Amino acid sequence: MKLIIVVMMMVAVTIASLPIHIQDIYADHYAQRRWQGTRVDLCYDSYGLSYLRIDNRTNQYTIVKQQLDITRNDWNNQPSRFTLRLIGGQYCSNWVYAANIRDSIPDTVAVAILCISNTCDYDLSRLPYGYINKAMIYFNTGTEWFTTRECSPFTTGKWTLNYVARHEFGHWVSFKHTFGSPSESVMYYAYHCDSRNSVKSVDSTELSNIYG
Ligand SMILES: [Zn+2]
């Protein structure tokens, strides 16, 4: 009798731990596609970015820059050696732009594009294997951007710029989307405040796994 209870308890423990294991998620990246070094020099296109409407006004490049810096520093402040460094534009090949992208990619408010061996794509699974040698992010000029925490963009039309930027910079380091719980990774596939408000520990760990 005692043995049956023990076996039943073991089964119960196994079942109880099973869903947790299934839900365990980890950030993942596109294998064999990464930057060669641990530092990416990038530039903000101040002219184009001043066209973004943020907090109901255009010509707010200073505010846009603050938003981009918040998210860039969030990635930089992780234990990984990897750094996104802002430099002057003269010798820059990696850019953050603003443009009307909804005509070419419907229902998109921002897109990250990576280039490997002269092939550039926003669908990173189509890239060849190799080192990333060029990257871009485009923020849509027809989108209503905000510095405030906006969590229902599909009903309100309001998007938090640093939240969207944080996810796009994740694509820059070759991260894939995650489909687990939103709060576990900034790379959750859909816009969600609990996902986009910070770089999560699984993201940080994966960054260290790739770049040290
Ligand atoms: Zn994405």
Explained architecture:
Mean pLDDT is 88; it is low at 5-24. This protein has helices spanning 2-23, 46-49, 61-76, 153-156, 161-172, 193-196, 201-211; strands at residues 33-34, 39-44, 53-54, 83-86, 95-99, 110-116, 119-121, 130-140, 144-146, 158-160. Helix content is 34%, strand content 22%. The chain has 212 residues and is an alpha/beta fold. Strand 9 (144-146), helix 4 (153-156) and strand 10 form a beta-alpha-beta unit. It is globular and about 40 Å long. Strands 1, 2, 4, 5, 6, 7 and 8 form a seven-stranded mixed beta sheet that branches. It has a three-stranded parallel beta sheet with strand order 3-9-10. The termini are far apart. The chain has one domain (24-211): Collagenase (Catalytic Domain), CATH 3.40.390. Bound molecules: zinc ion. Zinc ion (ZN) binds next to helix 5. Zinc ion (ZN) is lined by residues 167, 171, 177.
